[in-house]
Amino acid sequence: MTTTAGTTSAVPTVTDATFAAEVLASDLPVLVDFTAAWCPPCRMIAPVLEEIAVEEAHRLRIVQLDVDSNPATQAAYGVMSMPTLLLFRGGEPVKVMVGARPKRRLLQELSEVV
Question: Whose CB has fewer CB within 10 Å in the chain, the N or C terminal residue?
Answer without folding.
Answer: N
